Amino acid sequence: MAGILDSKQRIMDIFITDEGRAQAAAGEFTLRYATFTDRHAFYDTDNPLDARPVANDATSRIYFECTSRHQDQIVVELLPGGAVKPFRSTDFNLAPAGEDIVSNELTGSDAIFQSASVEFIEDITKSFYQQEIIGTIDPFSDTTDFRLSTDSNDPTGSLKFSLTDDRPFRQDDVTTIPLENIESIFQDKRFSHLPNFTYLPPRNKAPLGSSRGPLLGNYVNWSQRSPGTLQELLQGLAGKEFQEIEFVATSRENNLVIQPFEFIDSGGIRKLCIVDYGEFPDEDITSPGKRVFFVGRLLKDGNGFDTFVNIFTVIMD
Q: Within 13 Å of residue 61, how many CA atoms lie on the same side as its CB?
């Protein structure tokens, strides 16, 4: 955040917010985007020649030093191990309880909980809007709205999946398995594209003129084989139920912020994890390709190993 301290010299006072300090302490602080706000500007229409609001002269106005506001945090953060950091919005003050976010406002009957869950999602977006970020209207864009194809089909924008004897699992499929028997994230094919999860058998020192040394021994690669093409990925999803959502109205850049949550009948909210699996080329010449995301839960088994349980596979075209 930044604020103007000297109205004559326009000296900027910049400091790291509470969320930024927490990320810096964890070694995750990065600067990627800069935004400007007119939250402190006053507009009037005193000019009879121009009906558009004009900002008043702020030369003699007194400004307070910038401070951290709860609206600075618009994303519910996950800590290592799947725990959720405390999150405060306009109407909700949520505290973590293990893997779940539990709020007093979200306890009660199923009807009350479902209503409060919608309010919670809407309240998160308020933090973004209350920053009052200055934007630019794209003159070459047909619309500045954001609407989904589900908006016209269902007032709540809901998509439903059917649970039957043959869907999503067939009768001869394994439906229950101990968490310890599921591959850890270091063996999971959904993480194999990341450098930290690559199969790296130990090698001897590289001889002169060579970039890689000989292997110390014959080590078995216990990791799952990752699908190398989009067709292989789709083959693994064959027979699974899916829903298709179209962006009816959006900007040309189409920058999206997605936060998946799981609402629990007992009154808790669980933030789900997203694994960016990368982009796969396709045959559409007007599209750069399809971006694949895995959405699920990050659990810790009895041996202390992190395990990712995939719930949805999202393909962005």
A: 14
